[in-house]
Amino acid sequence: MQPLFSPVMKIDLAVTGQGAVSPAGVGVEALRGIESVPANVAYVGQPYKTWPVLRVDLKKPAFQRWQKEPRLRRASPISYFLVEAAEQALANLSASERADTGLIVAFNAGCLAYSRRFFEGIVSEGQRSASPALFPETVFNSPVSHVVSVLGLNGAAYALAGDETAWIAGLKTASVWLRQGRVKQVLVLGAEEFDPVVLDAYRSAHWLSRQNSARDFLPSEGASGLLVRQAEAGDSLIIAKAQDGLVYRSKKEASVVAGRLLRNCDPKIPYYPSARRNWFRSLEKKYSEGLTAIPGSDPNYLGEAFTASSAWRTLCAMQSLTTITPRIFVPVWGLNHQVGSLELEMRS
Amino acid sequence: MDKRIVVTGLGAVTPLGVDLATSWEALLAGRDADAPLELFDTAGYRCHRAASATLPPLPDVSGKTLSRLSRASRLAIPAARAALAQAGLLDTAGKSTCPVIPLSVSTTAGGMTFGETFLRNVLTGNRTDLLSQVSRYLPHQQVLDLQQTIGFAGPSVILANACASGANAIGHAADLISVGDADYVLTGGFEALTELVFGGFDCLQATSVDRCRPFDLHRSGLLLGEAAAFLVLESEEHALRRGAKPICELSGYGHTTDFFHLTQPQPDGNALVEAMQRATTQARISPAQIGYINAHGTATPVNDGTEAKAYVSFLGNSLGQTRISSTKAAIGHTLGAAGAIEALFAIQALSTGHLPPQINLQTPIPEIAHALAEAGETCSHLRHVMSVNLGFGGSNAALVFSSYEN
């Protein structure tokens, strides 16, 4: 068994901006509205079956404003999700402040739609048909480059890869840059896009169900993020601590690291139930005995979009911070590598 | 750097050899690994050549496990082991003596060979064994492979900043140590040749059907390659406390983002100049003190012209005293591994005084013709070297390594 690596790191990031694009809609306020919008569940087909998935509606006016951007003319949906979520989070920054803003985007599969289309061209139409318009957009950091260019950010920029926990790695990296003084603030985002090809991947992992019941995993897409800077006296919304590196290679090992993560959680701090309909649900339920789930968190299920899901859950948990519940523990369940957590605080 | 950060271990697998010493010897001898590509069918592509690596054996890994490892992992594991061994962090069975090792690694395609098999099967209606294919292509699978095979755990960061990723991963590892988040980090990059990426560069007409000729007036494109390279970075205090011998110091890291174009650098090279200036500022040295630069030098018409302008601007009158070469002519462009393997070559130059020559030159571009390293060149007084990388999306990164003096 792998040893537990659990230095819970104090990162003390003040949240000064938030942005979200999800199947529930555009904007942070929409994150809590999904249950009232059942029409967002689309049925996407393979030749012989259809499966319920949650999609972002790219026809919304919020996205149309970006279609005029030359940089985004050939871009994949993930770039539109990112630019929109980033602009929301940066809304209060001046041009000069944007120039001193770093950008970190965490991806699981990244530009999946164009990667599939590019390779499909090679397989179905031959190697001479490979598309030079598609290939550059398949690269992990292409959407990052688009955000930097369209929104005028001039600080450092990283694309990170990983499962849901890459969101934590992004926040920890932001903390490093801020402590070094590389930039004044950092925009950290998670983003994923849906492509029908993932249905075969999820089906092979037995993650999918055709029923769309209240317990079933729904593939999803979108982007979300936080603008953060080093916390100072007077800041109210804080990401206080982060933990990652609890690695597993089997469900047996996942059970061990999940148990250690939740048993190390201070029982005085309520937790945000994060494993709503994925395979960590039973482990979260099992090991959260003795812990208190924050009230009112239950209705929101935005589907599974890896790093974007981690960001949505963090934002939703943040909305639950009150003077009565000033601290919340957010488990981050990586579906194929590791688990981790964040601790959020509201400071008066 | 807030703290002194030292390099205590190096390891590599390249198209020139299964370890760093063999690769370095071949590099200094002016050999290249340009050969017909046999890993997949290239019949319909413009280009049919690449720099492929020979996979080192992994005798301690069972046949079943070996069949599950991606080509990227097969390259990464021996390179990481070699770095840990030199740092004194590996036992005789090839296992880590530290249960926890933070990782900062880079790649652009991860285990894409498995992803391609998955896609090909799905697209042709073959839905058998998809899970094993799809679960092994994502980059965190190679991290898991490293952790399991070598026997350690811990936090990991996977940088995917295209062709500058390797330098970013090393720079990030240094940042982690600098702020006190880690005492030591295993860092580096890996990349295996895959058809999706080969087809991509081929359709962009970025690959050469001639020789790869960095910084030549008649350069016509890059040679794709594959490699893995790793370093062990430690705080000086940590290294000395455990009796490790520093190879050199990582003294500076600079990175910038150029938003001129998705696939082309700003023609004046200013973003790259800024990255190099940030690195030398952090190292507290002037550009003139850099003795050797391992350049990005892809041999594409756009990159090399811009890069040469950046060196002219950055080095000023010291251009010529500072020697420059691109080792991509010998090992190809290894994308996510490029920044790591080229950093290792720069460190080798610093340690030995021998400079990798700029091979395949016919007519050097005039801006930096007198600065390009020649065969057999040595420099006995090298104190500082630099490794420079640029990538799709406008990533620019520069690392400065300096001789270690107690």
Key traits:
heterodimer, A: 348 residues, alpha+beta, Peroxisomal Thiolase, Chain A, domain 1, 2 domains, 9-stranded mixed sheet, two-stranded antiparallel ribbon, 10 helices, 11 strands, 29% helix, 24% strand, B: 406 residues, alpha/beta, 34% helix, globular
Structure description:
The complex is a heterodimer of chains A (348) and B (406). Chain A is α+β, with helices and mostly antiparallel strands and 348 residues long. Chain A folds into 2 domains: 13-230, Thiolase/Chalcone synthase (Peroxisomal Thiolase, Chain A, domain 1, 3-Layer(aba) Sandwich); 237-346, Thiolase/Chalcone synthase (Peroxisomal Thiolase, Chain A, domain 1). Chain A is 29% helix and 24% strand. Chain A has 10 helices and 11 strands. Chain A has helices at 61-64, 77-90, 95-98, 112-125, 142-151, 166-180, 197-204, 251-263, 281-287, 307-319, and strands at residues 9-22, 25-26, 41-45, 50-54, 101-107, 157-161, 185-192, 222-230, 237-247, 327-333, 338-346. In chain A, strands 1, 2, 5, 6, 7, 8, 9, 10 and 11 form a 9-stranded mixed β-sheet that branches. In chain A, strand 1 and strand 2 (25-26) form a beta hairpin. In chain A, helix 2 (77-90) crosses helix 5 (142-151) and helix 8 runs parallel beside helix 9. The longest helix of chain A has 15 residues, at 166-180. Chain A is globular. The N and C termini of chain A lie far apart (42 Å). Chain B is α/β, with parallel strands linked by helices. Chain B folds into 2 domains: 5-241, 3-Layer(aba) Sandwich (Peroxisomal Thiolase, Chain A, domain 1); 251-402, 3-Layer(aba) Sandwich (Peroxisomal Thiolase, Chain A, domain 1). Chain B has 13 helices and 12 strands. In chain B, strands 5-4-6-7-1-8-12-11-9-10 form a 10-stranded mixed β-sheet, sandwiched between helices. A two-stranded antiparallel sheet of chain B has the order 2-3. In chain B, a hairpin with a 3-residue loop joins strand 11 and strand 12. In chain B, helix 10 packs across helix 11 (301-315). Chain B is globular. Chain B starts with a strand and ends with a strand. The mean pLDDT of chain B is 96. Strand 6 (157-161) of chain A pairs antiparallel with strand 5 of chain B.
